[in-house]
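Re: that chain you flagged

S.,

Sorry for the slow reply, it's been a week of failed gels. I finally had a moment to sit down with the sequence you sent. For the record, here it is as I used it:
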Amino acid sequence: MNDKPTANLDTDNGQQSMDIMQRLNEETGTAFIFATHDPRVVSYARRVVKLLDGQIVDGNATSM
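Prediction finished late last night. Pasting the structure tokens below so you have them in one place:
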């Protein structure tokens, strides 16, 4: 498994994968944890935790 959910996918397939995971989260309450620098992936998140030198520097919920 890749630590970045869309790293090896083209744009369309990456978006489809994120849409599926978002739907699973909404319908079943399944949580997903991603490590990514991709702003498109971050835009799906309800919460973003930022790390700096191994320490949490921001862990606020985002608006959807």
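What I noticed first: Residues 11-58 form one domain.

Talk soon,
D.
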